[in-house]
Amino acid sequence: MIWLHTYLGVILGWLLFAIFFTGTLSYFTPEITRYLMPERGSISQSQQSMLAHSFTYLNEHAGEAEQWRIALPSERSALWSVQWREGKQRQTVTFNNQLAARENETDTKGGLFFRNFHYTLQLRGFGGRYIAGIAAMAMLLAIFTGIYTHRRFFKDFFTLRPQKLKKWTTDFHALAGILTIPFCIMICLSGIFIYAIMYLPYTANANFERGERGVNRQIIPSLPSLQLGEKVIGSDHLLNVPPSMPVPVPNYAHIQEKIANQWREPNPIARITVEGVGYKNSRMVVERSKATTVSNRADRLVFETYTGKQLKGYDDETVPAQIRRILYGLHQANFAPIGMRWLLFGLGILGCALIATGNIIWVTQRKKSAKQNPFTLALVEKGNVAAVAGLILASVSFFIANKLIGHDVAGRAQLEVNTFFTVWALSAVHAFWRAKAAVAWKEQFALASGLCFFTVTIELVLFRDRIANSIEYLDSVYLSFIPAFFVSGTILYWAAKKIGLRITNADIASKGTKASTCVKKEQE
């Protein structure tokens, strides 16, 4: 068990750290996207006024479209948009708090970059999800073998020896493991269940013509295909409609009343889709906010667009499908209020520390061994620097690239991604170039700390108007990033300083040993 626990960590530790770190950042995916898009400010309009404006805009600019979609902003995303489809062409327009259409939105991957990297490793179409799934299975094995390895839970939990760095690392590894056991099991199991059919496709391929897609079509309830009938002629549907009502949905007040009776929380609507625009049998699908459910699929109501009559809607999912959706929702934590998301973020950071300290302990123990392999030892020791400090450096560089690359630069979203991977690669070169891994740790943590403080400086110097506007509208999502980067920079500076002191003490001890050896030789 100890052997299996050790080498699962050594072989897959770097991959697991990358998955855990980017997954931890993904708890704030919409917030990161909002932070990286300066035009995204708070929306203080009521849902009723936003819907009225959206329907009016769509009627004026997309009257011949086949489908409309309205996405309403949440406190987290501040994204208000309308989309319409004509054939295979889709067009999207976003609005600001002044009901004006935004032009030239910032081209950025935003928080979705970290989220997609978390489960595809930027290898979508090349087996990235399979690699992430194997890593999750290996992490489960590492957790259970770790429980056996550190089975003295009570003693390990209250043991922390900060005076000696090597012992402190071992104690902290055990402590982090104990604290994160339920979290890590939940994350790994739910991550595996999300793609269970993909990882075990044999039954699906044997029994369904389209394999995985065939299974999904069978178990995921859907609405019957819409057979378009007669078109609404002229303005017949607008007779006796008050001017304040959304156009062309004359009975929306009736629909809104039914929604309010069934969904009693404030601002319950997340998205509205109108299918068969302009036809008498057009239908409207209203999707509820995911903040009210653990599942990753919220409730939906279906209405006739022009009459407001409520239709049957979606059938209930099967129990296995519901279980999968709940596990999916637990993994993403869209339901979690801000306090719980910070708790999950903290557990994710502890999980990252658990993985990193495990690999560092392996290096420390092998240095004491007489049977050590110098090449393997150097590979893991310096690879740890690139995997941990390098990934932190790359992530902060991603944010800085977003702030400094010109708004009108073509392909700026890809340039942000290229910056991330370039910095990560350079950190690996630096780690292997340095003779001592400890020096590389110190320098990369110090640089990451400086970049965090530099990000704060950029905000205070270049984005003063946005800060003032955020203070005026109490945009806590954007404002929270400034202290977050400051705290991160302080922690990284403390880590670099501690490593620097360790290097200094080691050099002093080494010189003292050499001096005593020379004295003994002289005496002899």
Rg over C-alpha atoms, rounded to the nearest angstrom:
28 Å
Biggest pleated-sheet summary: 6 strands, antiparallel
Give the termini separation.
50 Å
Structural class: alpha+beta
| Order of secondary-structure elements | HHHEEEHHHHHHHHEEEHHHHHHHH
Shape: globular
The portion of residues forming beta strands comes to 5-15%
Unreliable sequence segments: 235-246
Q: What does this protein look like?
A:
A hairpin with a 7-residue loop joins strand 4 and strand 5 (283-288). This protein is 61% helix and 7% strand. It is α+β, with helices and mostly antiparallel strands and 524 residues long. The chain has helices at residues 2-25, 29-35, 47-61, 111-120, 128-149, 153-157, 165-194, 196-199, 202-207, 212-219, 252-262, 319-332, 338-368, 374-404, 412-433, 437-462, 464-472, 476-479, 481-523; strands at 67-71, 81-86, 89-94, 269-275, 283-288, 300-304. The chain has a 6-stranded antiparallel beta sheet, with helices on one face. Residues 235-246 have low confidence and may be disordered.
